[in-house]
Amino acid sequence: MIMVKNIDVKSKPTPEQIQMLENAKKIAISKDDEYPEFTKEELSKFKKISEEKKIDRQKQIVTLRLSGKALKKAKSLGKGYTSILSRIIEGALEDPEIIKHYI
């Protein structure tokens, strides 16, 4: 049985919510026959995929000159705007029409 309950973590939990969490601690964890645990061999495959894609995920430091307008718009995206810019650039570079338009 799966129980889902949303609790607002920004406010102090109510006594009822605290009791609910205490009761949830006491519920035994049961295995799911439909989705058995992974074997060591299956888990090792995940690790290999992860290691293979590690190079693609690593960030490189570059210097990039942006117009004031572009920088202002980028910074307006908030915290993490450089990661967002990275994804935007990746997406644009995968689209031949966008590349063709700006060359």
| pLDDT < 50 stretches | none
- Main beta-sheet annotation: none
Beta fraction of the residues?
under 5%
In total, the number of strands is: 0
First-to-last CA distance: 57 Å
How does the overall form come out from the CA principal axes? flat
Number of helices in the DSSP assignment: 5
Please give the share of residues in helix: 55-70%
Rg, please? Answer: 23 Å
Query: What's the helix-strand series?
Result: HHHHH
Average pLDDT for all residues:
85
Structural class: mainly alpha
Protein name: Antitoxin
Organism: Catonella massiliensis
Structure description:
This is Antitoxin. It comes from Catonella massiliensis. With 103 residues, the chain is mostly helical. The mean pLDDT is 85. The protein is built from five helices and no strands. It has helices at residues 15-26, 40-57, 68-75, 81-93, 96-102.
Brief account:
This is Antitoxin. The protein has a domain at 35-102.
Task: Please give the structural blueprint.
Layout: H1 15-26, H2 40-57, H3 68-75, H4 81-93, H5 96-102
Q: Any key phrases for this structure?
A:
5 helices, 103 residues, mainly alpha, 56% helix, flat
